[in-house]
Write a structure and sequence with these properties.
- The structure is a single chain.
- This protein is mostly beta strands.
- The protein is about 0% helix and about 45% strand.
- The strands form 11 sheets. Strands 1, 21, 22, 38, 43, 44, 45 and 48 form an 8-stranded antiparallel sheet that branches. A 6-stranded antiparallel sheet has the order 8-11-18-13-14-15, with no helix packed on it.
- The model has no long low-confidence stretch (mean pLDDT about 90).
Length: about 600
């Protein structure tokens, strides 16, 4: 195998990436590096090396630790160069003036959707501070820095907390519900029961608080701090960052088509309808599959009725297939139900969180996939018979079989929930978080110019190791070796309608194809696929077996990996490695290379 690797002209084993770039390990001079693009804001996620969902994150506040620029003080003053919680000397001291007024620091902006404001604060002779926002509803939370206790909280904030980080420092955070915020404040207040932006008289102009590292981000929790200047700053899965997914033991390059999460609030279930089928939603109750404390607890209210959280804001198209997905973790209930109650038929999937199995499917098909810390992702796929809005149904069940949403009177049947998704397709893709409106993740696309080391295309060998993680009925999984002109391309794929492994070769802008198919190959399992061409003879190998040969009408003339992608009409693939050889390998070499 080492000799075969040495003979390859291109080798890509997903390991090193940066935004817009996927590095090859052969050649090492950069000629074989892949350019990557997705350009879909921060909608993409992956499973990281710890088995947790990693998102893109953005600090949307400007000058996050330079309070002399872009910030306004009201009857207060600031002094820089103070000792910070992180051992640096870039904290600030905020003190108020000795007159009756509001004493605060503020920044104006316009941000919509569920979001979290956070800042590190320490008392310096004064203990009481308030985090507040101005919007259609004035919101605030008070904190006592002597012990980190939370005082009065306006009715609109979802959550308020003070987390000790040592040496008297606390990270204060408040979660803002669905409103358009136009400014945020940190104010010195007289007590832990003060009202919104209290006006009062400070006793002196020396006592105050130390401040450091403001952050304003989408979501229900404060995540690791991201420094900003005159523009916002991002971290995590960036717009054009290749996604190395660790759903298996080693990373693979996740390539997916464009897809939208049609639900407006995928994590904040407090914005859903919790009255029709009465339940109580307690946000930020448990650690979610992304490793933060932002999963919700759903608790049935008393009374013999249906109990579920519901969203009725997604318009449906009759005859269209939809896939719902949500993450569940067992609390008090063994069984959970996921589905749609808005059609002429109930579409329901029941899952067993003890065994990680689907126990019932009513006018739908379901899957269940384990995640870290006893979480499961459950899916429900169905085709709508009318155009009434999708009425999602998400709740617990007392039984393992449900022909309709269950009715019961048992408040102990609780469940943890996170990450709801509605996709207009027959299979789920990776999680797309939403914080107030539907979000679209664009297609993953990576290309490489290999012409400098691949000059004779009349013979060659293309090998890939990959898995097809998602159901593909009616569509295809696959990727392309293409020179960018018409039909001059080689395709390695799995046919969705038959489950066969297959190569398709289209030559010189014609519609004729050389197609060689294997027997059915299983989803999710690892497969090694190879196509060899020598003149107009094409041979296909899969998992150590010579599937057969075919003769094309012409000789392949592609020279570049001009496109490597899951095309828009194709399903996802997880690419584990790619090798390109400038010669046609022997049968024995092809078998050795593809043997699992």
């Amino acid at each position: 195998m080492s000799k075969l690797f040495d003979d390859s002209s291109l080798a890509m084993i997903p390991s090193a990436v940066k935004d817009g770039k996927l590095y090859s390990i052969r050649p090492t001079d950069g000629d074989g590096d892949f350019t990557f693009s997705r350009g879909s804001n921060l909608a993409a996620t992956r499973v990281d090396v710890n088995g947790l969902i990693e998102k893109g994150r953005e600090n949307q506040i400007l000058h996050s630790n330079n309070f002399s620029t872009g910030w306004t003080t009201n009857d207060a003053s600031l002094t820089s160069g103070q000792s910070g919680y992180d051992g640096s000397n870039n904290a600030w001291k905020l003190v108020g003036n000795t007159n009756a007024s509001r004493h605060n620091l503020l920044q104006s902006f316009s941000i919509t959707g569920i979001n979290t404001l956070s800042v590190y604060v320490k008392a310096s002779g004064h203990n009481y501070v308030q985090l507040a926002s101005a919007s259609s509803i004035h919101q605030y939370a008070n904190f006592d820095l002597s012990d980190g206790s939370v005082g009065s909280v306006g009715s609109s904030f979802v959550d308020a907390k003070a987390t000790s980080v040592g040496n008297g420092w606390y990270r204060l955070s408040v979660v803002n519900p669905i409103n358009t915020m136009v400014s945020c404040y940190i104010s010195l207040i007289s007590s832990n029961t003060a009202g919104w932006l209290e006006s009062w008289t400070m006793s002196n102009s020396t006592d105050g608080v130390f401040l450091q590292h403001f952050q304003f981000e989408q979501g229900l929790v404060a995540t690791d701090y991201i420094e900003t200047g005159a523009s916002t700053a991002q971290a995590g899965i960036l717009e054009d960052l290749p996604r190395l997914d660790y759903g298996a033991s080693c990373p693979s390059l996740l390539l997916e088509p464009q897809r939208s999460n049609l639900i407006g609030n995928s994590e904040y279930f407090g914005a859903w309808n919790n009255v029709t089928y009465p339940v109580t939603i307690t946000s930020n109750s448990a650690t979610s599959p992304d490793g933060n404390t932002n999963a919700a607890l759903i608790t049935p209210t008393s009374g013999n009725s249906r109990h579920a959280t519901r969203d009725t804001n997604v318009a449906a198209v009759s005859g269209t297939t939809y896939t719902l997905s949500a993450f569940f973790k067992k609390a008090g209930s063994r069984y959970v139900v996921l589905g749609d109650s808005g059609d002429s038929l109930w579409h329901l999937v029941t899952a067993d969180l003890n065994n990680g199995t689907i126990t019932d499917e009513e006018n739908a098909t379901g899957t269940i996939e384990p995640y870290e810390n006893d979480w499961y992702r459950v899916t429900c796929t169905f085709t709508r018979t009318n155009a009434v809005t999708i009425q999602t149904f998400l709740g617990a069940s007392p039984t393992d079989t449900n022909t309709a949403a269950p009715s019961f009177d048992d408040t102990s049947l609780t469940a943890y929930i996170y990450g709801f998704q509605v996709e207009a397709e027959s299979y789920p893709t990776s999680y797309i978080p939403t914080y107030g409106s539907a979000v679209t993740r664009s297609q993953d696309l990576t290309t490489a110019d290999t012409s400098s080391f691949y000059t004779d295309s009349s013979s060659g060998t293309l090998f890939t190791e990959l898995s097809f993680p998602l159901a593909a009925d009616g569509n295809y999984n696959g990727w392309f070796f293409w020179n960018g002109s018409g039909y001059n391309r080689i395709v390695l794929q799995r046919r969705g309608d038959s489950g066969r492994g297959q190569i398709e070769v289209r030559i010189n802008n014609t519609t004729q194809a050389s197609i060689i198919s294997s027997s059915v190959i299983t989803l999710e399992d690892n497969h090694k696929m190879l196509v060899r061409w020598d003149g107009n003879v094409f041979t296909f190998f899969i998992d150590g077996v010579n599937i057969g040969s075919d003769t094309s009408n012409d000789v392949y003339s592609g020279t570049d990996l001009n496109e490597l992608a899951s095309r828009p009409t194709y399903n996802a693939a997880n690419i584990k490695q790619i090798l390109l050889f400038p010669t046609a390998l022997t049968d024995s070499e092809c078998i050795a290379l593809t043997t699992l």
